[in-house]
Write a structure and sequence with these properties.
By secondary structure, the chain is of the alpha/beta class. The chain is built from twelve helices and eight strands. It is globular and about 55 Å long.
């Protein structure tokens, strides 16, 4: 990757309002890696409209892609829901001429156009393929020792595999490889590819909670000290929802112990020697303070 390469940063709707420390930790890590993030006046990715009005969904996504294209920038998002939405819309526009004409006619009113040239990256695949694990490893100042991590993939980046092209949707390894770069040990756990349950929160809270606690119990049985996410919705579920149900440290009434959830940018950032403040360590609802005891002394000392 060329140092100081510029990317249009697409945080999505939830990060600025519900999970700002995902945004700040992402910026801190990428800045340390020589990546410049450019803020544009993006709109919603379009996901909420997907099952209500397909053309509106595609238009919302296409406008964001076209704005990045207008400025000659590839697009980078840390939200897997937004990544999935943008990639899916991009796929439809590439393969359906009538839809493409209609969407570009609407975009033309703002002087925009979807032309199929904009690269769309999720944070994890960008780190794995564009930055590379060797480069990441070279930036590790304080590797972890004895820390066991359950990497949670989330749903939207993996499927459908022929559209997302993120990793093998049935047997992915990308996230575990990125966890291992930090010195932490990724654990094998049976429910790693299942949904976190957050899309159901507010609609069927009982089922959403059951799905979350089944996953956390499975990660616990596998020996994980923390679950690690790189998805806005999944982090809200495992952190904020878990804290609301059980408190920041106590065992839940269902008998399921609290299992803290760390964002990958926080996990990586601490190992890179970035201060806790910009990574938002204290802003996690389920306390993360204990994770620093797994860090080795700095290699520069």
């Amino acid at each position: 990757m060329t140092p100081t390469k510029r990317f249009a940063f697409f945080p999505g709707c939830k990060i600025p309002f519900f999970l700002d420390h995902y945004g700040t930790s992402c910026r801190s890590v990428l800045e340390a890696l020589g990546v410049r993030l450019v803020e544009l006046e993006f709109n919603c990715c379009g996901y909420p409209a997907r099952e209500l009005h397909f053309d509106a969904f595609v238009l919302s996504a296409a406008r964001n892609i076209a704005m990045a294209g207008r400025d000659g920038l590839p697009l980078l998002t840390p939200c897997k829901c937004c990544f999935g939405t943008l990639k899916y819309a991009d796929h439809w526009l590439r393969n359906h001429e009538g839809l493409r004409r209609a969407i570009n006619a609407a975009l033309r009113e703002e002087g925009l156009a979807w032309d199929g040239t904009v690269e769309i990256h999720h944070l994890l695949s960008f780190l794995a393929h564009e930055v590379g694990t060797d480069t990441l490893r070279a930036h590790i100042e304080r590797p972890y020792r004895g820390l066991r991590i359950a990497a949670h993939y989330g749903c939207h980046a993996l499927r459908p595999g022929r559209v997302m092209r993120f990793d093998n949707p049935l047997a992915p390894t990308l996230f575990e490889d990125l966890v291992a770069v930090t010195g932490a040990e990724p654990v094998e756990w049976a429910r790693r590819l299942e949904c976190c349950g957050h899309p159901l929160w507010g609609k069927n809270d009982r089922l959403s909670r059951s799905m979350m606690e089944a996953k956390l119990s499975d990660a616990r049985r596998a020996g994980a000290d923390y679950v690690c996410t790189a998805c806005t919705h999944c982090q809200i579920q495992f952190d904020a929802v878990q804290a609301d149900l059980h408190g920041p440290t106590a065992s839940g009434g269902s008998g399921v112990p609290i299992l803290p959830s760390v964002l990958y940018t926080q996990l990586l950032g601490l190992a890179m020697g970035i201060a806790e403040g910009p990574l938002g360590i204290e802003r996690n609802r389920v306390e993360l303070g204990g994770i620093t005891r797994y860090l080795c002394p700095s290699r520069s000392t």
